[in-house]
């Protein structure tokens, strides 16, 4: 069924007001306790509520088992702006800016010739779109219609979201190239599109940024010609001035800062240096060790701007997280989940969920963009290796039938820099699992992906979902004071390789569980039940008057009979729908 653009929830529990959608919602959880080696399950229900309004921050809420009454408030959509370094490879910032520009309803190009005359995916004319974006190209199922068919709506139609074309871009980079020059150097976009975008991208020039050589690979020094001078404290203050200037000059309601620059080496967490907000601010003031990304995080938090870390290093050290809690500012991370790791979070979930004991995972990839060049340095590769290796942990721990405590698969990650392939990253993966009776199963995958074009829509989703979360808040009957999401915005885990979560919270890496979390929280804001995929009405012997089945209804007690002649397939082949010839089966006794 075609996705509908708009819908309306008709329920006594949902009220559409001039400035808010208010919905009562029951949220149930299951408590499990151990008594003498036996698990006792109790489905507790408490009481609570939820509300959302413009400009909210976030914090975690309740104990398991309660009834929530969500209220979502929506005023006219603000002009939110993602702002940040143009990219760990120059193609990332230029791709996002170009994507937003080519889909906007103004003079920028919306279609372009590829320049390739041979048949294939790169031939002919292409039109701008947001493929790869959860919010702009994904759909959700609202429910079933009178014929029992699912009805889908765009993900962005669930709740009022900022339109991508309303975003305004700015950022910092250690390279002084404007985005047109960076676009040409990256060699990601088709030449015809680059030519059309050039006069628009040429006007976008990054602000000077922070360069601390020991945090990124030495091969990046040739690009470092656009730098903020001074001490760490002076650099911090300059970043804050840049944010204030951008907000004022562009007339923005909100700014969301994304770190998309080079992968840094890990920063050691040292008591007295960066373990608390007070110590971290003092470290910056004294000019002691602090990474460039942490400087940007602190500046963003102090300016009340959400900060999202798209690289794998530990930017959000404990001191930065405490500062975000004190200021009630959203932070999220780490490391955009775009290609190989996204596949891994699906495949390992499938293997272990099917009862196969995955014992070996070997992931190799090579790429030739600036990200790959920076990752060729050992310390920067180590940051990436950590973020890519932890993605299977929760899936392994979810099955104590297969894995003993402390047991885990062998997991090897290799990244190589091959300049010739550019942004077209090649990933090869091998998954070996144990079967029954001593057997083994090995799956080998080859994945060719255009790195920047996968990451750019993720950046877009992060900005839009973070802004939406700033307009959602909750309350309970026991605690009627409105509260919002925890400053560590774990709702964004679907988009990160190594998702940050509030202290003590479980880390979920399985991709479809992460997506269901986002979808069901947004459904809760409309008073809709969570999507459970039961489709129980189609599994009942007597579905009742609500569901009208289409087509013949099978007999209650089917009888096995000899097969009759099979009609010809629609493609002109004789046999079944797949073109296989039909063989008459032997006579079977009936029951």
Could you walk me through the main structural features you see in this protein, from its secondary elements to its overall organization?
The protein is of the alpha+beta class. The protein has 2 domains: about 90-335 and about 455-525, NAD(P)-binding Rossmann-like Domain (Rossmann fold), CATH 3.40.50.720; about 340-450, 2-Layer Sandwich (Dihydrodipicolinate Reductase, domain 2), CATH 3.30.360. It is built from 14 helices and 19 strands. Helix 8 links the parallel strand 13 (about 305-310) and strand 14. Helix 1 (about 90-100) crosses helix 3, helix 5 (about 230-250) packs across helix 7 (about 290-300) and helix 7 (about 290-300) packs parallel to helix 8 (about 320-325). About 40% of the residues are buried. It is found in: Cytoplasm.
């Amino acid at each position: 069924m075609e996705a509908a653009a708009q819908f309306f929830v008709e329920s006594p529990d949902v009220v559409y007001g001039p400035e808010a959608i208010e919905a009562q919602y029951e949220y149930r959880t299951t408590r499990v306790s151990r008594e003498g080696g036996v698990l006792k399950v109790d489905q507790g229900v408490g009481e609570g509520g939820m509300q959302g309004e413009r400009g909210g921050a976030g914090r975690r809420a309740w104990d398991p088992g309660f009834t929530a009454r969500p209220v979502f408030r929506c005023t006219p959509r603000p002009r939110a702006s993602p702002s940040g370094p143009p990219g760990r490879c120059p193609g990332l910032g230029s791709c996002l800016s170009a994507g937003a520009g080519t889909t906007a309803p103004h003079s920028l190009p919306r279609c372009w010739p590829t320049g390739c005359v041979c048949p294939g995916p790169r031939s002919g004319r292409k039109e701008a779109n947001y493929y790869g974006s959860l919010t702009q190209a994904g759909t959700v199922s609202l429910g079933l219609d009178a014929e029992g068919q699912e009805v889908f709506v765009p993900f962005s139609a669930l709740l009022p979201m900022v339109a991508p074309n309303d975003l305004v871009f700015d950022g910092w980079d250690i390279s002084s190239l404007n985005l047109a020059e960076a676009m040409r150097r990256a060699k990601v976009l088709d030449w015809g599109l680059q030519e059309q975008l050039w006069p628009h991208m040429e006007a976008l020039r990054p602000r000077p940024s922070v360069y601390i050589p020991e945090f990124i690979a030495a091969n990046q020094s040739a690009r470092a010609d656009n730098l903020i001078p001074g001490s760490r404290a002076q650099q911090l203050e300059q970043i804050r001035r840049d944010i204030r200037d951008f907000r004022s000059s562009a007339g923005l309601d909100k700014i969301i800062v994304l770190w998309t620059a080079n992968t840094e080496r890990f920063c050691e967490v040292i008591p007295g240096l960066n373990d608390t907000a007070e110590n971290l601010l003092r470290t910056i003031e004294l000019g002691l060790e602090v990474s460039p990304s942490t400087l940007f995080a602190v500046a963003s938090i102090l300016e009340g701007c959400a900060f999202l870390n798209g690289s794998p290093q530990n930017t959000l050290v404990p001191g930065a997280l405490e500062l975000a809690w004190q200021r009630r500012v959203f932070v999220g991370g780490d490391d955009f989940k775009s290609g190989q790791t996204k596949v891994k979070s699906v495949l390992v979930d499938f293997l272990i969920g099917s009862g196969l004991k995955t014992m070996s995972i070997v992931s190799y990839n090579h790429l030739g963009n600036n990200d790959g060049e920076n990752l060729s340095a050992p310390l920067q590769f180590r940051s990436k290796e950590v973020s890519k290796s932890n993605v299977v942990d929760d899936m392994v721990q979810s099955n104590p039938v297969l894995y003993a405590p402390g047991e885990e698969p062998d997991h090897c990650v290799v990244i190589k820099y091959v300049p010739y392939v550019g942004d077209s990253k090649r990933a090869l993966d091998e998954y070996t699992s144990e079967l029954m009776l001593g057997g083994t199963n090995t799956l080998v995958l080859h994945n060719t992906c255009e790195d920047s074009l996968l990451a750019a829509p993720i950046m877009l989703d992060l900005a839009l979902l973070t802004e939406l979360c700033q307009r959602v808040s909750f309350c309970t009957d026991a605690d009627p004071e409105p509260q919002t999401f925890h400053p560590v915005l774990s709702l964004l885990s679907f988009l990160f390789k190594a998702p940050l979560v509030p202290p003590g919270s479980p880390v979920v890496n399985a991709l479809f569980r992460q997506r269901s979390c986002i979808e069901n929280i947004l459904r809760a804001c409309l008073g809709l039940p969570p999507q459970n995929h039961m489709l129980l009405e189609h599994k009942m012997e007597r579905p009742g008057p609500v569901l009208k089945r289409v087509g013949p209804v099978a007999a209650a007690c089917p009888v096995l009979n000899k097969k009759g002649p099979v009609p010809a397939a629609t493609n002109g082949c004789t046999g079944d729908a797949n073109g296989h010839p039909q063989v008459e089966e032997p006579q079977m006794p009936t029951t």
